[in-house]
């Protein structure tokens, strides 16, 4: 596939189916090829086993058809089945009553597993084991990887990078030294000599005042 070609959804699905077919070959995929099975109509139970790509097959009333059906509503060469690297393509071969896939009239359509095809009064079912295996894989739950051990490296640090230097804590400002206030010194108690002197002074002062009063009274 060219690099500049954008793969479609159908191409991607076809590639997945082809890879599954290759994986199933060792398990006997040759015994489980894709097929068209008549599920309703005059030829119920008949089937067309589809060979590997590339191949072309005809469905109709003509005797040389790869899937010969006796349905009167079919054209002689009603539809063509094309096998290629992308899977199975069903094409209306300008039939009088048309080709319907899943209740929709088509000119041509890439078939998917379990598609239902109506041609005339005949109903066919397309079975593709490889696509069924792909669908089963798509529906299976995803495997969950075991949780990894928690990393001690901070977020945003590249693996293998040296650990960042620790950020120093801000210095705490030194508090001023507490002033030690000594206990208030107690007053000295008055000793005996001092008390006598004070008392004598008071007595002398009182005597002088009394004498002054007496002298005035005369």
Order of helices and strands: HEEEEEEEEEEEHH
Percent of residues in β-strands: 15-25%
Helix content: 10-25%
What ranges have pLDDT less than 50 throughout 5 or more consecutive residues? 1-6
Shape: rod-shaped
| Distance N to C terminus | 155 Å
Largest sheet: 6 strands, antiparallel
Mean pLDDT: 76
The secondary structure category is alpha+beta
Oligomer: single chain
How many DSSP E strands? 11
CA-based gyration radius: 56 Å
List the strand order in the largest sheet: 2-1-11-10-7-8
SS summary, helix count:
3
Verbal overview:
The protein has a six-stranded antiparallel beta sheet with strand order 2-1-11-10-7-8, with no helix packed on it. A five-stranded mixed beta sheet has the order 4-3-5-6-9. The chain has 218 residues and is α+β, with helices and mostly antiparallel strands. Strand 7 (99-101) and strand 8 (104-106) form a beta hairpin. The longest helix is centred in the C-terminal third of the chain and has 26 residues, at 192-217. Helices cover 24% and strands 22% of the residues. Helix 1 (9-24) packs across helix 2.
């Amino acid at each position: 596939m060219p690099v500049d070609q954008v793969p479609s959804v159908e191409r991607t699905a076809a590639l997945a189916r082809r890879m599954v077919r290759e994986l199933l070959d060792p398990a006997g995929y040759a015994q489980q090829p894709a097929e068209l099975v008549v599920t309703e109509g005059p030829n119920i139970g008949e089937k067309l086993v589809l060979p590997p790509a590339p191949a072309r097959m005809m469905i109709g009333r003509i005797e040389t058809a790869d899937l010969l059906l006796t349905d009167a509503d079919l054209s002689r060469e009603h539809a063509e089945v094309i096998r290629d690297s992308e899977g199975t393509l069903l094409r209306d071969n300008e039939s009088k009553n048309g080709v319907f896939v899943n209740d929709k009239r088509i000119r041509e359509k890439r078939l998917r597993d379990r598609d239902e095809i109506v041609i005339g009064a005949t109903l066919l079912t397309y079975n593709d084991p490889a696509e069924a295996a792909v669908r089963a894989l798509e529906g299976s739950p995803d495997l969950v990887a075991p949780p990894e051990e928690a990393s001690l490296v901070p977020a945003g640090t590249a693996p293998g990078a040296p650990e960042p230097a620790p950020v120093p804590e801000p210095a705490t400002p030194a508090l001023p030294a507490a002033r030690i206030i000594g206990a208030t010194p107690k007053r000295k108690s008055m000793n005996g000599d001092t008390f006598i002197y004070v008392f004598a002074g008071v007595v002398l002062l009182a005597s002088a005042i009394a004498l002054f009063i007496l002298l005035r009274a005369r």
